[in-house]
Design brief:
By secondary structure, the protein is mainly alpha-helical. The chain is 76% helix and 0% strand. It is globular. It starts with 18 loop residues before the first helix and ends with a helix.
Length: 500
């Protein structure tokens, strides 16, 4: 592919004819990584009973994965640039499958936590490799739009697909299959990667910025850990505040070090670029609101409306379908012709309006008339957002920086997910407690008041989520000033600053 990539933007007829099959392989791997953040959620009660996990420790089934994933993404992205993206892609797939098999066979809580952390480590290698392979494979603006539309649809809907698949596997097989299912997916993706994907060799003589690795990854791990623990310990807990302080200090020193070192882990020109910075921030804010939605709707459907795990998963299906339609049928068709912010800002406005519709839900809401329209609006809005973010953030990057740029997009996603879960859950629980205290005047209506209080807490948090979505739209509209891809710099042509 390296011999044809230069002319691909101008003459895509010379591109690798197998590139669309390569996209299937990349999309399969990305889907596996994204859905694993949520597929275990619905299986968690069963796993907790089987392995004797305490209520205080059960969050580590989720946190161990997100902590390792979010904390090590920058390192994974830079390794992909140095060693070669296809090689790290395959290593990530093999390691992820092995960790999944280990987790599925776990006989103790500690082994399950360790396996989930190991999954996160290999996901941090796999995810940036997948996105950077996509970036270097599709450089023609029109084809790039279609490819990133599919990728954005999977990135946006993977979490919802995880709920559906998790519900089906838990109810009809066993919770362990929520982990085992990754093995055949990874085997198929490895076979496809070895036969279909092409990549330029890595930079064998280049050195890894070890101090940058320790500072950057340490700072991200501390931040993600702080947000994860805030959900259960509270924002004023000493451990949580200490983690935030440590993360802030480490990341500040990391930025200072990156401005001085000859070969930085994260070249600062990547985040100084206005369009990329706007995309990273838009992604983080959108995911904060999105993860809050997943958390509340899962509990609302199961605990308040008494849905089964499978029915809960299927209830998310319209959201998934709307994201796919928004990404592949709207964004992918329009992006070659319009500036990205004309998709991003309206997308966030649509998603925010869906969140506002959800704030009207009660203890006996009808799914068809009150929940479904909101999920469709949110799905279309996220579909309009994810694809332009991925495409714009990675456009015009020098090939040697493709991995670390892709990792930065994924990092904003992971950090946003951690913030969203902790922040919005704290808002919800605080509002619930205040409602119950104000309305409970005796034991007669206790159960009813508690249910009403839980739903009230969700609706308050959803108002916050709607506000965060609007803020994301404002950021996208004001910071992302890139023109339509066909009128601007060709996607395969690095901007001068990236070559420096």
């Amino acid at each position: 592919m390296s011999g044809t990539r230069t002319g691909e933007a101008a003459a895509p007829v010379h591109a690798d004819p197998r590139r669309w099959w390569g996209l299937v392989v990349i999309a399969l791997a990305q889907l596996m990584v994204v859905l694993d953040a949520t597929i275990v959620n619905i299986a968690l009660p069963s796993a907790q009973r089987d392995l004797g996990v305490s209520d205080g420790d059960r969050q580590w089934v989720i946190t161990a994965y997100t902590l390792a994933f979010g904390g090590l993404l920058l390192l994974g992205g830079r390794i992909a640039d140095l060693v070669g993206r296809r090689r790290t892609f395959v290593i990530g797939l093999v390691g992820f499958a092995a960790a999944s098999a280990l987790g599925g066979a776990a006989t103790t809580a500690g082994l399950l936590f360790a396996a989930r952390a190991l999954q996160g480590v290999f996901a941090a290698v796999l995810a940036p490799s997948a996105l950077s392979l996509l970036t270097t494979t599709f450089t023609d603006p029109r084809e790039r739009g279609k490819a990133f539309g599919i990728y954005g649809a999977l990135a946006g809907s993977g979490s919802a697909i995880g709920f559906i698949l998790g519900g089906l596997l838990t109810e009809y097989l066993d919770w362990r299959w929520c982990l085992y299912v990754n093995v055949p997916i990874a085997v198929a993706a490895v076979c496809g990667a070895l036969t279909l994907l092409r990549d330029r060799p890595g930079h064998a003589g280049a050195r890894l910025d070890v101090p940058g690795v320790l500072l950057g990854c340490g700072g991200l791990v501390a931040l993600v850990f702080g947000f994860s623990e805030a959900e259960s310990r509270g924002w004023s807990d000493g451990l949580v505040l200490g983690a935030f302080a440590a993360g802030a200090v480490l990341l500040a020193v990391f930025v200072w070090w990156q401005s001085r070192v000859e070969r930085p882990l994260l070249p600062l020109h990547i985040v100084r670029d206005r369009n990329r910075a706007g995309c990273f921030l838009t992604m983080m804010l959108a995911v904060i609101a999105m993860f809050g939605l997943f958390l509340f709707m899962t509990y609302y459907l199961q605990a308040v409306l008494a849905y089964s795990p499978v029915r809960t998963g299927l209830a998310f299906l319209p959201l998934t379908a709307s994201i796919v339609v928004g990404s592949t049928q709207i964004s992918a068709r329009l992006l070659p012709h319009v500036p990205p912010r004309l998709l991003l800002a309206p997308g966030m406005l649509l998603a925010a309006s869906g969140m506002v519709v959800l704030t009207r839900m009660t203890v006996d809401s009808s799914y068809a008339t009150e929940i479904l329209p909101a999920l469709i609006l949110i799905g279309l809005g996220m579909g309009l957002t994810f694809m332009p973010v991925f495409s714009t953030a990675t456009a015009g990057v020098a090939p040697r920086d493709a991995g670390v740029t892709s990792a930065t997009v994924n990092t904003s996603q992971q950090v946003g997910g951690s913030i969203g879960t902790a922040l919005l859950n704290t808002i919800a629980t605080t509002s619930t407690s205040a409602y119950v205290t104000a309305h409970l005047h005796g034991p007669a209506r206790r159960a009813e008041v508690v249910r009403e209080g839980v739903v009230h807490g969700y609706t308050v948090a959803l108002w916050w989520a709607a506000g965060i979505m609007l803020l994301a739209g404002l950021v996208a509209g004001s910071m992302v000033t890139a023109g339509a891809p066909k009128h601007g710099t060709a996607a395969g042509t690095p901007v001068p600053e990236s070559v420096a």
